Automatic annotation (TrEMBL):
It holds the Pfam family Phage_Mu_F. InterPro entries: Phage_head_morphogenesis_dom. Residues 163-267 form the Phage head morphogenesis domain. The lineage of its organism: Bacteria, Bacillati, Bacillota, Clostridia, Lachnospirales. This is Phage head morphogenesis protein.
Amino acid sequence: MCHFWKDQQNAITYKELRQAVIDGTLTEETFREWSNDYSLLVQERLKFMWDNALAAGSISQPLMGGLAGFTFNPDTPAIMTWIQQRGAELITASSTEQRDAIKALLAQSVRERHSVDELARLIRPCIGLTEPQVKANLRYYENITSSLRKQHPKMKAETIQRRAREAASKYAEKQHRQRAMTIAQTEMATSYNKGADEGIRQAQNQNLIGIVKKRWCTSGDDEVCEICRSLEGREISMDSSFEMVKGWLNSGGNLTPPAHPRCACAIEYIEVH
């Protein structure tokens, strides 16, 4: 994904970035191209990851361990629909996040504090980041600039900006790696839990297991958040949804984790009849 974002950065010229700063926005064509890029990423990379995680999740439950003759079918309408829906959601969310991030850099208040050329050079390394990450990167750049001015009052403004940009660019690389890891972990968890759910349903359709209830299980460590801690041990029927106050990441009616980025929760399925 970091290579993917790097390619997007290289695809847009400095002239285009400079004009975007002057206009206060990037062109709609650029945003459409980024959306198409995400579509290709989903088709060529993420679908393969989803398929593997779905298969792994389908046999992950102890309940499935002793089932003779069970074979997971990855090509059911339910799974194909889920993959299409998940892909569409990810493309839309990623494109929207990218648009919002660039808009944050091109906001009136930001343009009033920085020159056209300065902002044009700041935008490219930030392509692929979320809006909060972009704002954090801009604050980092401004802090570096301020520190250099205080520590080196005779240093040329161009030199200060160049050094601050280099530092911000390295910070952006770290932010890209963090975001890529978050997406990968979240998508793996989402498809793994979907695979577990679908595996149980397929086994039920084959009359290999009976009625099942599901129990929310956290990782049990200090990293468990308040949202997931409140769900720990909660038991509901297969087709019921888990309730929570805040928004839910997973599509499909809140049937399975994850509840938030990098959520490490899973479901235990228990045969009751």
